[in-house]
Amino acid sequence: MNRIVLLLLIILMSACNAGKKSEHKSGTITIFHAGSLAYPFREIIKEFNTEYPDIEVLTESSGSIAGARKITDLNRICDIYATADYKVIEELLYPEHASWYIAYARGELSVVYSEKSIYSDRINASNWFEIIQQSEVRFGRSDPNSDPCGYRTLLMWQLAEEYYNTEGFYQRMLEKDTRFIRPKEVDLLALLETNTIDYIFLYRSVAEQHGLKYVILPDSINLGNPELLTHYKHVNVELRGASPGETIVMYGEPMIYAVTIPSAAPNPEIAETFLAFLLNPEKGLEIMKRNGQPPVLPLKIDNLPEIPEILKVLISKASENIGN
């Protein structure tokens, strides 16, 4: 009798182990992501690997437009493309390189500085536009043709010119401190740390992640309020297009991060597993929220029929359960 019970236990344990092996996932995925996602994605990947220790996640950080051009111009492949602006997917990856996206987090622009910055003891939301124009003040910004933070900065300047009623502000800012333009916004942090520049036009979330000081800008200009879409949309900038000689126009919109699995992704199933973790309200999205990039409610979906089934369930759950 005991031998029979023991045999049954062995069979049962073997069946359980077989089931676990069938669910086990391993492999490698590559993520091209926006520079402003570097900090939260490191934390997300660390937590993800506690559940999936045999999945290696490789990342490449760049401006979102530069990341898209790795795919379109350099024929490089990745398993996940994560951008600081969903419009980049629509304008540069559709329809050849991607067919859907999920927009999942938001942010806002700010003016970032350190204690060593000139006039750091007096700058605020009412006078930053005057201080930043002073000849002794140096500021940095990212390249609008490589990085959404770059063209969002230009859009914000246009809105600021109207908001503060300071004629010619936009043109003066375009011409000032052009030597401090960098490919992506996080490249500017070292310049601030060494006091090479005094201020950066940067996402508020990145400033918080790095413990930097920042000016909280009015909603009318910070591109952070989803309810002000119509107001933001009346300004625009022209950028280089997907092909030589082409241009695209980016209009002012609330800042929204988005993610997709490119059509040529070599490991789409593992990529789906990672995105399921990222979009889980209690996992990836909670980490994003803690890092100053709160969820979009409801999640913005484009081309729902093309989205993997595993993600459709989480989309519904996230939209129902996440608070601001």
Quick summary:
The chain has 324 residues and is an alpha/beta fold. Helix content is 40%, strand content 21%.
Tell me about this structure.
Helix 3 (64-72) packs parallel to helix 4 (86-93) and helix 6 runs antiparallel to helix 7 (169-175). The protein has helices at residues 2-23, 38-51, 64-72, 86-93, 128-131, 148-163, 169-175, 189-193, 204-209, 219-222, 229-232, 268-278, 284-290, 309-321, and strands at residues 27-34, 55-62, 80-83, 101-106, 109-113, 139-142, 181-182, 199-203, 213-216, 236-240, 247-251, 256-260, 295-302. With 324 residues, it is of the alpha/beta class.
Describe the structure using short key phrases.
324 residues, alpha/beta, D-Maltodextrin-Binding Protein, domain 2, six-stranded mixed β-sheet, five-stranded mixed β-sheet
